[in-house]
Design brief:
This protein has 254 residues and is an alpha/beta fold. It is 54% helix and 7% strand. The protein contains 11 helices and 4 strands, in the order αβαβαβααβαααααα.
Length: 254
């Protein structure tokens, strides 16, 4: 679909040129030596990795498993396949022990209890953000974000976790358009065919978490179409996550 939701396909060759130019411009403006992104083995990170590599030869994809069997298995394998196909330098930083140490410290503090499920699952994306920024600071890199338009509208990302980045070259693309772009670029079939998942815990999928499909989200974003049940979910998620799409409120500063 086009940006406006009509039936004309997007010109992904032009999209590729424009997005590569966007990334190169930001890198030149910042004076950064290279780029870094979290290579999760999913569709969004795959597209961001391909775009970044075309824009900058010194692009590093970091695989960041964190306390999930899927992270250390299927996701890692898919991430390595992507890196091999597109010549993306790869580094693996296992955050499992770091998360365990942080959780242990949190629950051991005087007056603390067990962590809420949401608090526990959001630790992994925030540790990944910390790792990417540590690498970026040490090696003069910009951190590329990997959230798509559908996720951003729903607020389906962790504040100061996977929502944190220096730039995001796919923020205007719905999940459907990311898939179409990857097909155009010839991305690996195992990445194209896997169910979207943040890999936060075993068996987790995005659509099961939200209670709505990406197809339904994208139909609403691109065409304004939604049945009453889906519209209620869309409105509830978008309203509840408004704070994630704003910068912090600073007293005395506009």
């Amino acid at each position: 679909m086009s940006k406006n939701g009509d039936n004309c396909m997007r010109d992904y060759e032009q999209e590729l040129r424009d997005r590569v130019a966007f990334i190169r411009g930001l890198q030149a403006e910042s004076g950064a030596a290279g780029l870094v992104f979290g290579n999760s083995g999913g569709k969004d990170s795959a597209l961001v990795g391909i775009l970044c590599k075309q824009a900058c030869g010194d692009t590093l994809g970091v695989i960041l498993p964190c306390a999930s069997t899927r992270n250390l298995g299927e996701d890692k394998t898919d991430a390595e396949a992507l890196a091999g196909m597109y010549g993306i330098a790869t580094r693996t930083v296992d955050l499992t022990a770091a998360k365990a140490a942080l959780v242990a410290a949190l629950v051991a503090a005087p007056g603390a209890g067990s962590l809420a499920h949401a608090a526990d699952t959001n630790i992994a994306p925030r540790l990944r953000m910390a790792a990417l920024y540590a690498i970026a600071a040490g090696e003069g890199r910009l951190v590329a974000g990997t959230g798509n338009r559908s996720e951003i509208h729903m607020g389906y990302f962790t504040k100061w976790g996977d929502g944190a980045c220096d730039f995001n070259p796919i923020a205007d693309l719905t999940a459907t358009e990311v898939y179409e772009f990857l097909r155009h670029l010839g991305a690996p079939a195992n990445i194209l065919e896997k169910a979207p998942s943040a890999g936060l815990f075993e068996g987790q999928t995005d659509e099961a978490d939200m209670g709505i499909t990406y197809r339904a989200i994208d139909a609403f974003l691109l065409q304004g179409k939604a049945n009453p049940a889906d519209r209620a979910i869309l409105e509830r998620y978008h309203a509840a996550s408004a704070h994630k799409r704003r910068m912090p409120r600073w007293y005395g500063v506009d």
